[in-house]
From TrEMBL:
It comes from the Bacteria. This is ASCH domain-containing protein.
């Protein structure tokens, strides 16, 4: 579920608590926490609704129902969903980036990922590549990392990000302090 930056800021400030989308079927579930550029957004409830009530337009950050309807994402031929949302705090990966404790556990996790990969051991080579070429577009890195497809490379970098080892920049990536510590202790 995508949000505009302005909507995310209003969610974080508590000025927006409801969003609407036209979907074929619900794409999120209550209780889901979405990672966004401002941190976590929790989905409190999801319901298909016949229309928008005036109070909901205000809760969605619009002056009236007409303004909300004019800005609704999705195909109007699809059902309308009302989604209650709330800011749920910082992205936990941010704290992981500076946590240099547990390096042995992270190394063991990288070993498990490499053993289970059809590509073979890719985690350390990708970390080394990002470390040696920070702020370089993924489109310029994936071939040097031995990938045939950009999407596969990005997926794997996201796996490293989940462990707090990399950070996404406006352009490209860089190693986090945790990533540098792991790479410094890595022998592969």
């Amino acid at each position: 579920m995508l949000f505009r930056e302005e909507a995310l800021n209003r969610i974080r400030e508590g000025r927006v608590s409801v969003v609407f989308r036209h979907w074929r079927r619900a794409r999120v579930r209550a209780g889901t926490r979405l990672r966004t550029m401002i941190g976590l957004v929790e989905v409190r409830s999801v319901a298909e609704v016949p229309g928008v009530e005036p109070a909901d337009a205000t809760a969605a950050g619009y002056p009236d129902v007409a303004a909300l309807r004019a800005d609704l994402p999705g195909d109007p031929a699809h059902p309308l969903f009302r989604i209650e949302v709330a800011y749920a705090g910082e992205d936990p990966r941010i704290a992981l980036r500076t946590d240099e404790a547990g390096v042995d556990e992270v190394l063991a996790a990288l070993d498990r990922i490499d053993r289970g990969s059809r590509r073979g051991a890719w985690t350390r080579p990708v970390l080394r590549l990002i470390g040696s070429r920070p702020a370089v577009r993924a489109g310029d890195l994936f071939v040097d990392a031995g990938y045939a497809e950009l999407a596969s490379f990005k997926r794997d970098v996201r796996r490293l990000k989940e462990l707090g080892l990399t950070e996404s920049l406006e352009v490209g990536y860089r190693l986090s302090p945790r990533g540098e510590a792991v790479l410094g202790r890595s022998s592969k």
